[in-house]
């Protein structure tokens, strides 16, 4: 529960009248402190059980919403196989054991996509905003609302965390440390504690002899291609659920490629919705390459002559890059789908027929 402990410690500091940002490991918005406050009233002996259970429950909740997005039964073969696969992936184990708050985003993104699919765009924006207020992982995803020309949803996604952050900052000591201490620490890629687990191209490629400037430029170029690809994929139309998922996941993969650090458990922001999308013919996730690149992330898998840290970083980067390339191929190279956008209320429940028990 290392990562959750950083936030919990910040909440204790806040309750004692100190500044949470005095601890350089507290890297979230001020609103996160308020969200963590209830934990300080829970008996310490219960937290080692409660936090991992809640973290796993949020990931599985995201999987359930991803299935509903594609109208797949929670009792289907795909649903059961997805749970088994995710539980055997190393990133799931790390996410649960660390108690990392990425789990909030793993729950929120599928729910936001489901709401958008049902034409409840503003509520989707509210869900994204609440997730950002907890941990600012879904900031890139908010661009989907602009791409889809849903300005009210974008405003909701921006206003909710801003209101919570400003309100929390007004209650705490030295909130300006967020700008003078925390943001510079984040922009420099944190420190040596995080670097061995960082899968961003700007960190990994220099280990292979690539100049740092060239590595950063390559990561930025791929991230920019993903942003353009998300816009292009949205404008292709076709199956509305696939359109939402593939555009949204490209937006989320862009910072995983270019920003520092990029950890393995970030995969669970996009994996549930991509995995659920295999129920639709023509989905990018049906590519065999996406399945193969996940094999090294299975618990217990190791590369020959590579230590655990190297295996961790390179295999995570491989997942991010392969997922990105497959989605870019879908956006730029494959022919546009001939089908027009399907209204969520009239769409045939083909997925349930394909994957029913």
In words, what does this structure look like?
With 357 residues, this protein is mostly helical. It contains 17 helices and no strands. It has helices at residues 2-15, 31-36, 47-69, 77-88, 90-98, 102-117, 121-134, 143-147, 151-171, 177-187, 201-204, 212-236, 240-258, 271-276, 288-294, 308-332, 350-355. It starts with a helix and ends with a helix. Residues 337-354 have low confidence and may be disordered.
Please outline the helices and strands:
Elements lengths: L1 H14 L15 H6 L10 H23 L7 H12 L1 H9 L3 H16 L3 H14 L8 H5 L3 H21 L5 H11 L13 H4 L7 H25 L3 H19 L12 H6 L11 H7 L13 H25 L17 H6 L2
Helix pairs in contact: 3-5, 3-6, 6-7, 6-13, 7-9, 12-13, 12-16, 13-16, 15-16
Q: Give the C-alpha Rg.
A: 20 Å
What structural class do the secondary elements suggest?
mainly alpha
**Mean model confidence by pLDDT:** 86
User: What's the number of extended β-strand segments?
Assistant: 0
Helix content: 55-70%
- N- to C-terminal distance: 36 Å
Low-confidence stretches: 337-354
- Please write the string of helix (H) and strand (E) elements: HHHHHHHHHHHHHHHHH
Shape: globular
Total number of helices: 17
Largest sheet at a glance? Answer: none
What fraction of residues sit in β-strands? under 5%
């Amino acid at each position: 529960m290392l990562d959750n402990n950083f936030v919990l410690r910040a909440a204790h500091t806040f309750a004692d009248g100190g500044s949470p940002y005095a601890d350089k490991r507290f890297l979230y918005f001020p609103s996160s402190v308020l969200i963590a406050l209830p934990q300080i009233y829970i008996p310490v002996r219960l937290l080692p059980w409660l936090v991992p259970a809640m973290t796993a429950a949020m990931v599985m909740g995201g999987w359930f919403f991803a299935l509903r997005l594609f109208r797949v039964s929670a009792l289907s073969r795909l649903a059961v196989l997805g749970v088994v696969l995710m539980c055997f992936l190393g990133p799931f184990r790390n996410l649960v054991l660390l108690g990392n708050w990425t789990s909030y985003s793993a729950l929120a993104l599928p729910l936001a996509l489901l709401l958008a699919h049902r034409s409840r765009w503003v509520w989707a924006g509210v869900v994204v905003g609440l997730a950002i207020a907890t941990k600012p992982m879904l900031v890139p995803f908010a661009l989907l609302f602009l791409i889809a020309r849903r300005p009210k949803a974008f405003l909701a996604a921006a206003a909710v965390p801003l209101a919570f952050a400003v309100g929390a900052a007004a209650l705490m000591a030295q909130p300006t440390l967020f700008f003078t201490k925390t943001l510079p620490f984040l922009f420099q890629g944190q420190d040596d504690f995080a670097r061995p687990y960082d899968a961003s191209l700007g960190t990994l490629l220099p280990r292979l002899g690539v100049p740092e400037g060239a590595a950063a430029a390559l990561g930025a170029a791929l991230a920019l291609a993903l942003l353009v690809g998300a816009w292009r994929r949205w404008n292709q139309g076709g199956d509305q659920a696939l359109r939402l998922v593939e555009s949204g996941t490209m937006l989320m993969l862009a910072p995983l490629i270019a920003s520092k650090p990029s950890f393995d458990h970030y995969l669970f922001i996009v994996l549930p919705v991509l995995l659920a999308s295999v129920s639709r013919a023509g989905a990018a996730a049906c590519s065999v390459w996406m399945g193969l690149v996940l094999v090294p992330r299975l618990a217990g898998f190791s590369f020959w002559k590579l230590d655990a840290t190297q295996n961790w970083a390179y295999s995570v980067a491989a997942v991010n890059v392969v997922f990105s390339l497959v989605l870019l191929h879908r956006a730029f190279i494959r022919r546009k789908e001939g089908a027009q956008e399907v209204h969520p209320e009239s769409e045939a429940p083909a997925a349930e027929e394909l994957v029913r028990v």
